[in-house]
Amino acid sequence: MKTTYYGQSTIMIETEGMKLLFDPFITPNPAAKDIDIHSLQPDYILVSHGHGDHVADLVAIQKSSGAKVICIAEIADWLGKQGIKAHGMNIGGGFNFDFGRVKMVNAVHSSTLPDGSPGGNPAGFVLDSGVKKSTLPAIRPLPMI
Q1: CB of 5 closer than 8 Å to CB of 14
Q2: What residues have CB less than 8 Å from 18, skipping those under 6 apart?
Q3: Residues with Cβ < 8 Å from 103, sequence gap 6 or more?
Q4: Per-residue pLDDT tens for 84-128?
Q5: How, if at all, do strands 138-139 and 123-128 pair?
Q6: Is a pLDDT exceeding 80 seen at residue 132?
């Protein structure tokens, strides 16, 4: 497993031959100013909540890569209105993807989308890719306060 940190709460995890991008906030992020978002090409994008500093490049990266988006149901609906099919989940739910299992867990924060619409409950993710669970981190992107 390989992890790349792009600043703020944006990370890429490469596991089981798949690239998982979390909370794509790259273009407006000074720490990631030299990253070409179209070169990332993730297989999946996981979104913890709807704030702009977590979804700034979500639509552009998804459209460029064709990545499947995993997020709370309300963000999946918001993406659907933009022509993007996402895998909506709810807190406590889990699903087996081709790279492993994702369980959505509670996070304490707000979640309004950039256009002002409600973004559902904020969430974190616990991943199990078949690697020993002790070596696979629980991913809970932390909000900037």
Answers
A1: no
A2: 43, 44, 98, 99
A3: 92, 93, 94, 125, 126, 128
A4: 999 999 999 999 999 999 999 999 898 889 999 988 999 999 998
A5: antiparallel
A6: no
